[in-house]
C-alpha cells in the first residue's frame, strides 16, 4: 500500500527530493530507494529513523500494519512539528487512537486508500481528526487526489468504504482470475485468457467511471445483455448461484472484519 501511495504522489507531481520514507529492514529500504528514487531510511540501521523523518515533515503518512500504528505514533510524537499532519492509511485504527498517542492538538487524518492509487485510479476515504483544519484536509486531499478520487466522510462510514473500495481491488482481481480460468478450461492459451480478462475488466471499469451519473452499473449491464443472448445466459447462471448476494456478503464481511480489528486494538474484543 505504501508503494502505491508513494508512486501515486510522485506521478502526481510531488518532487522525489521532498520525500523521506522509512522501512523496517535495510534490504527493503534499499529496494524502495532504487524503485522510487526517494531517500529511504531503515529503522533497523538507526532506531531514530522514523522520528528523524517525521520531524522534518509537514505531512507524515503512517503505513505500518494496524497493530503497530499506535506504537509508531508514540515513537515519532516528540519530534513532530505542531502543525504537521499525521495521516494514517491503516484499516481499523481510529482517529481517537492516534490522537491519544500523539501530542495534544496534533492534526491527524485517518484514510482508507486502495492500491490502484499506484496507477492514478485509486479511491481514498478521508476522515479529519479533531484538530485538523479545513485547509489541512484540503491540502492532503489535493496530494492524494492526484492519484485517485478522494472522499471526505464521517468515521462511522469508513468501514463500509473499506468493504467496498479498500478491499475492492481484490474482488476485481478475483473476478479476473476466474474469467481467465474459464477461458483456459475452454481451450485458450493461459496468457491470452489472462489478457482478455484484464483488458475486459479495465475497459468495463473505464466505461463505468466515464458514464457515471448517466448510466449506473445495472444499466450498463442491461445495455450489453440481449434477451436470450450469450451474456444473458451467463448472468442467469450467476443469478442462479446468487452471486450478487455473495458479493454483497463478502464486502460486508470485510467491513465487519475492520470493525472487529478496531475492537481488538481497543482491547475490548468479545
Ligand atoms: N494492502 C492493501 O490493499 C491496503 C489497503 C488499504 C489500507 N492498507 C493499510 O496499509 C498498511 C500497510 O499494509 P501493507 O499490506 O502495505 O503492509 P506491508 O506490505 O507489510 O508494508 C508495511 C511496511 O511498513 C514497514 N515497517 C514495518 N514496521 C516498521 C517500522 N517500525 N518502521 C518503519 N517501517 C516499518 C515495512 O518495512 P519492511 O519492508 O522493511 O518490513 C513495510 O515496508 C496497513 O495498515 C493496511 O491496513 C492496505
Broad CATH class of the largest domain: Alpha Beta
Sheet with most strands: 5 strands, mixed
CATH evolutionary superfamily of the largest domain: NAD(P)-binding Rossmann-like Domain
Q: Give the beta-strand count.
A: 7
**What is the number of helices?**
12
CATH topology of the largest domain: Rossmann fold
Task: Show unreliable segments.
Answer: none
SSE run? HEHEHEHEHEEHEHHHHHH
General form: elongated
What's the rounded overall pLDDT mean?
A: 95
Distance between the termini: 29 Å
Backbone CA Rg:
21 Å
Could you walk me through the main structural features you see in this protein, from its secondary elements to its overall organization?
This protein is α/β, with parallel strands linked by helices. The chain folds into two domains: 2-154, Rossmann fold, CATH 3.40.50; 168-255, ProC C-terminal domain-like (ProC C-terminal domain-like fold, Orthogonal Bundle). It is 56% helix and 13% strand. It has helices at 2-11, 26-36, 49-56, 66-77, 95-101, 134-145, 158-166, 168-185, 190-210, 217-223, 230-240, 243-266, and strands at 20-23, 39-42, 59-62, 85-88, 108-113, 122-128, 148-152. α8 (168-185) crosses α9 (190-210). NADP nicotinamide-adenine-dinucleotide phosphate binds at residues 1-2, 22-25, 28, 43, 50, 63-66, 68, 89-91, 112-115, 166.
Amino acid at each position: 500500500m505504501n508503494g502505491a501511495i508513494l508512486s501515486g504522489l510522485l506521478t502526481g507531481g510531488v518532487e522525489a527530493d521532498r520525500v523521506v520514507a522509512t522501512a523496517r529492514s535495510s534490504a527493503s529500504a534499499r529496494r524502495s530507494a532504487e524503485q522510487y528514487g526517494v531517500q529511504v531510511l531503515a529503522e533497523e540501521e538507526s532506531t531514530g529513523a522514523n522520528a528523524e523523518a517525521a520531524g522534518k515533515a509537514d505531512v507524515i503518512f503512517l503505513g505500518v500494519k494496524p497493530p503497530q500504528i499506535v506504537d509508531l505514533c508514540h515513537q515519532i510524537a516528540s519530534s513532530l512539528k505542531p502543525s504537521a499532519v499525521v495521516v494514517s492509511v491503516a484499516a481499523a485504527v481510529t482517529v481517537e487512537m492516534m490522537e491519544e498517542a500523539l501530542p495534544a492538538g496534533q492534526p491527524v487524518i485517518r484514510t482508507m486508500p486502495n492500491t490502484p492509487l499506484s496507477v492514478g485510479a485509486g479511491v481514498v476515504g478521508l476522515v479529519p481528526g479533531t484538530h485538523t483544519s479545513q485547509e489541512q484536509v484540503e491540502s492532503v486531499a489535493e496530494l492524494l487526489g492526484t492519484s485517485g478520487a478522494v472522499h471526505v466522510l464521517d468515521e462511522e462510514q469508513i468501514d463500509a468504504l473499506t468493504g467496498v473500495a479498500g478491499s475492492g481491488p481484490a474482488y476485481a482481481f478475483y473476478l479476473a482470475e476466474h474469467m481467465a480460468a474459464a477461458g483456459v478450461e475452454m481451450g485458450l492459451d493461459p496468457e491470452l485468457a489472462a489478457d482478455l480478462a484484464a483488458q475486459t475488466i479495465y475497459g468495463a471499469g473505464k466505461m463505468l467511471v466515464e458514464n457515471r451519473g448517466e448510466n449506473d452499473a445495472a444499466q450498463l449491464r442491461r445495455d450489453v445483455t440481449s434477451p436470450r443472448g450469450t451474456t444473458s445466459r451467463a448472468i442467469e447462471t450467476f443469478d442462479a448461484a446468487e452471486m450478487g448476494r455473495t458479493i454483497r456478503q463478502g464486502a460486508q464481511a470485510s467491513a465487519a472484519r475492520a470493525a472487529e480489528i478496531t475492537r481488538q486494538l481497543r482491547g475490548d474484543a468479545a
